[in-house]
Every structure is written in structure tokens, then in C-alpha cells.
Amino acid sequence: MRILIQECLKASVTIDGKVHSSIDQGEVLFVGFTQGDDENIIDKMLDKLFKLRIFEDENGKTNLDLAKHGGNILAISQFTLYADMSQGNRPSFVKALPASESEPLYNVFCKKIAERLPTVQFGVFGADMKVNLINDGPFTLLMDSKELFGK
Hints:
By secondary structure, the chain is an alpha/beta fold. The chain has helices at 39-51, 66-69, 99-116, 145-149; strands spanning 2-15, 18-23, 26-32, 55-56, 62-64, 72-77, 121-122, 129-144. It has one domain (2-149): D-tyrosyl-trna(Tyr) Deacylase, Chain: A (3-Layer(bba) Sandwich), CATH 3.50.80.
């Protein structure tokens, strides 16, 4: 599982010309799944995510997590996080979990994150989404479950 985290000043998802979800200051999460991912990995990744101290304190040091800083989350499914560009010029997505397997995991991810942060906003799995965000910093991190937990 991979989560690309972008600290933002504001962000939104538009589908068919209508704003589906939006947040002010917080984090935009792009979430992708691969073979072997399961609910246990989702729990570990969310535990790590909510403990990340990526927001500046009064001294300009990244010492605050989202809860202490304040803000919200906009989570969006993103299979392209598993693009393989090692061969040729066209990315391969064979490492990304097929939609039939990743959609149920994304739904579990959404349910679990909403249990921790009821105001979280989401994109729509498989939809043609237009994502608009103002990256703060910019501050962007990639969490990879294989790198963090060996799975």
C-alpha cells in the first residue's frame, strides 16, 4: 500500500463539472494498493499517518501531527502510485491491484479513516476526477508499506 501525502492549504475533487468534496488546510492523500495488501496493512498505515508530525509548530519545526495542528483530510484512490517505468516509455500498472480487488480495500480504508476523523472527505473510486490543490510548502511524502513494514 502506498499513500502519497500532500500538505495543502485547500483542495477539492470535481466530478462531471461539480465539486464532489473539498477541504481547507490539511492533507490530501492519494492511496494505492498492490498484491498482498489487506486490512492489517491499512491499520498500520493509518496508525503511522495519524502520528506523522509534518506540520510546523510555533518555532517553525515540523513537530505537529494533524490533530494538534488542525485541519482535514481529502483521500483519493490512485492506482498510478504503482506505475512501473523501468521498461520503455509507457508506464505499466501491473503492480497495481486490479480495481475488483482494490475497491473493497479502498472502501475499508475510507471506513477506518472516517472512524478516526469524521470530517474526512473522499474522492470516488474509479471516477474521472479533477483534483485541485494548493500544496503548502510544498510538503509531499510517500508512505510505502513494504518500506515501512516489509509488507
